[in-house]
Specification:
Elements (H helix, E strand, L loop, with lengths): L2 H13 L4 H14 L4 E9 L5 E9 L3 E9 L6 H4 L2 H8 L3 E5 L10 H8 L4 E8 L10 H4 L6 E8 L7 H35 L1 H8 L8 E13 L2 H7 L2 H21 L3 E6 L2 E7 L5 H27 L8 E17 L2 E7 L1 H16 L3 E3 L1 H6 L7 E7 L8 E6 L2
Parallel strand pairs: 10-12
Antiparallel strand pairs: 1-2, 1-6, 2-3, 4-5, 5-6, 7-9, 7-10, 8-9, 10-11, 13-14
């Protein structure tokens, strides 16, 4: 394959936003079709995700892009990263490095070169490409705080006897920058969507990227509402140092969110020391959705009990968690001002869920379930016990409330 044909394919792949792994696989195989004996490719890049600092993929001739790595921010100093040849290249501002793997190993060289020699590789070519406007030399935690400072690193290894020929090197030097540009184009969407999903939720982020961006663009949906709040958290906020308070809050949110996401819930809002989540009934029957929400609530309370038991051993008090479950029609979409929109749910059902949660402390229960939820719960109704009728603030008629039986 001629280099211009490969260039045209990369341009098309970038414009079509070809999935990351497909782009790497297609590029590597076309390199081999062009006569460049590429036996192994490594592609890595950092992200703007608040949890994931960097991702990488290894492609080899027999298995394709089968090996994936993902590193959290706290793992950025892990040996596998610190001992990478790219760590030194970025630190020293080196954009290109080439190594003859048939030569004996030198003291202190990156461990990956011994791995490549054992795999029969004869030569390695590494490149670094800045993907943002500014180009810091070392990807320290401070880099993540500055927008636009992203890097892509890649390498091509060959098992050809004698290594790359001179024409191979010229082709690779010419085509790898275009490959980096195609990767930037095709990953921009999932970087942006992953970042949005961290703050808005998976479904809202997908809707925003699908074009649901106008103010007032909402749709009515039926959903199970999961409204949770930490009881008497203001007292903890008054007593604890800021860092300790945020650490406690994060641990409590982990207890709430893990069961939610595991059972199909979508967190829409963190409300200070609480959250609002929904379980959509679009893809499941109402009774199935209620069962999932009830299970998530029960598991969240169990996790909070475990957290409290762990902290009490260290002499650290823990707030209790109150949860309200309700079913109703909500408006789901964009609200706000022209300059600042919010993707959320609104409607009387949301207000009712919030007011039910306020009764948890008064009734001495950590979980309260609405009459509408109990009616929709199907077989899960057997796990609920009535607490009688109660008046919600701002609602004229009393409503029956339930909690977990036993």
């Amino acid at each position: 394959m001629k280099p211009d044909v490969l260039s045209e394919w990369l341009v098309g792949a970038g414009l079509r936003s070809l999935p990351f792994e497909e782009l790497i696989d297609g590029f590597a195989r076309r390199l081999n079709d062009a006569g460049i004996a590429a036996a192994r490719l490594f592609v890595g890049m950092d992200t703007l995700h608040p949890l994931v600092r960097a991702r990488s993929v290894i492609w080899d001739r027999s298995e394709g892009p089968a090996t994936h790595y993902e590193f959290q921010h706290i793992e950025i100093d892990a040996p596998i990263i610190a001992q990478s040849p790219f760590a030194a290249m970025l630190r020293q501002g080196i954009e290109r490095q080439q190594l003859d793997l048939t030569l004996p190993a030198v003291e202190g060289e990156p461990p990956v070169f011994a791995e490549l020699r054992d795999a029969g590789m004869t030569e390695w070519l590494g490149r670094t490409f800045p993907l943002g406007e500014s180009t810091p030399r070392l990807p320290t935690p401070h880099v993540a705080e500055a927008a636009g400072q992203l890097w892509l690193v890649c390498s091509v290894s060959t098992d050809r006897s004698g290594g790359f020929v001179e024409s191979d090197i010229k082709r690779l030097d010419a085509i790898l920058p275009l490959f980096a540009l195609a990767v930037k184009a095709t990953t921009a969407r999932w970087i942006g969507q992953g970042l949005l999903a961290s703050y808005l939720g998976i479904d809202p982020a997908a809707r925003v990227f699908a074009g649901t961006v106008q103010r007032g663009e909402v749709l009515g949906v039926e959903a199970v509402l999961f409204y949770a709040d930490l009881r008497d958290f203001t007292g903890f906020a008054d007593r604890l140092p800021p860092r300790e308070l945020i650490g406690l809050l994060d641990e409590c949110f982990e207890c709430m969110v893990r069961p939610l996401t595991r059972h199909g819930g979508e967190v829409l809002k963190f409300l200070g020391d609480g959250l609002l989540a929904i379980f959509s009934t679009e893809r499941r029957r109402r009774d199935e959705t209620c069962a999932l929400a009830l299970t998530a609530a029960s598991e969240a309370l169990d996790l909070m009990d475990l957290l409290a038991a762990k902290r009490v051993g260290a002499g650290q008090p823990t707030p209790s968690l109150d949860i309200a479950l309700h079913v109703g029609e909500v408006l789901y979409g964009n609200v706000g001002a022209d300059a600042r929109l919010d993707f959320t749910v609104i409607g009387p059902a949301v207000n009712e869920a919030a007011r039910i949660e306020l009764l948890c402390k008064e009734l001495g229960r950590n979980l309260l379930v609405s009459q509408a939820f109990a009616a929709a719960a199907g077989r899960s109704r057997d796990h609920l016990a009535s607490l009688g009728r109660h008046r919600l603030r701002g609602v004229s008629e009393e409503t029956e409330l339930f909690t977990l039986a036993g």
